[in-house]
Amino acid sequence: MRSLPFRLSALALVCGQVCAADLVVGSVNPMSGVMADMGNELMWGARAAFEAVNAQGGVNGNRLVLLAKDGGYRPAEAAAVVKNLIEQDKPIALIAIAGTSINEEILNQKLLNHAQIPHVGPLSGGAVLRRPINPYLYNVRASYRAEASRLVKQALTMGATKIAMFYQNDDFGLDGLNSVEAELKKHNMKVIATGSYETGADDVRAAVSTIAKAGPDAVIMFSADKTAAAFMRGMRQHNSTANFYAASLVNHRILIQQAGLNNVQNLVISQVVPSPNNLSKPIVKEYRDALKRHIPEAKPSYFGLESYIAAKVLIEGLKRAGPSPTRQSLQKALDGIGRYNAGGFELTFGPNDREGSEFVDIAIVGADGEFRQ
């Protein structure tokens, strides 16, 4: 797998490799293939935060180095890359690794526990990352249950009476399905039809046929980009007029490329951080300024802002861990953060609280392909 070391300091560049005086933070994400946009946006966000703090002299005099490796998007392969990164590169922490199944595999192999290494801001709202609490895992984003609740409420507000569910048949998708069903039950409603696909599969025709026949006026999708695009395109080919709602892991630009703007327009997507265009939020302005100054080729994005916030949490923990932090002192410092205000974005952490944030908003794809709130 490709290794993409973002060397964030002049010292690291002079050494040619990571210097002993630098604090290495590792991440493994898809940096190539159809998911590369998400992986790059995540790394740009974290990198911007590290670059900004390094420009001010680092954290307690320590400079931060982001070491990003391409792990693809398959659990076993990505976990193997994580294991290798931990053992060979000796990072003090991990940050923003994406995927419920990938993070579950990391937990199942006890990679965090064996290495006693904190992982801040996994890109997943999965229940498996929340209960039981793992002492080394610090969630930043809201849970999929919170996202599902917000999507159902939005659909009902827009007049939906017949809601169907399209989902990926793994922990991510099943978490979404169970959460949607639980939310609808509060309103004495049920999902009228479901359609699923296996992780990594491309063929969604059976799901399209089943859901289209049920005649929903809304479909909630817990799906990857490629399959969500194929599903929406297929539903329109079946003359469905249903409105589409999606969980936050989809990239609307990829959906437009693969399904066409006509099919994606008015798509509602739940978002777990504020809009990267909402300059009334101090964290957004800070993120955009850091991106412009340190990574001018990168565009502001939801994924980038999310990893920037995760990096802020990690930086706060490192500040509290002292001038010679270890994984153990960092874990203790993160547990002691309590309530943390990241520029208008509230998070909480403690030994028995790893939820991070409960923030969920929505964004709607407009006629120009951009978001309107």
Automatic annotation (TrEMBL):
Coiled coil: none
Keyword Chloroplast: no
Record's keyword terms, sorted: Amino-acid transport, Signal, Transport
Assigned protein family: Belongs to the leucine-binding protein family.
SUPFAM superfamilies according to UniProt: Periplasmic binding protein-like I
Name of this chain's protein: ABC transporter substrate-binding protein
Classification via InterPro entries: Leu-bd, Leu_Ile_Val-bd, Peripla_BP_I
Domain Leucine-binding protein span(s) in chain numbering: 25-363
A Pfam family matched in the record: Peripla_BP_6
Signal peptide per UniProt: 1-20
Classification via Gene3D superfamilies: 3.40.50.2300
Taxonomic source organism: Chitinimonas lacunae
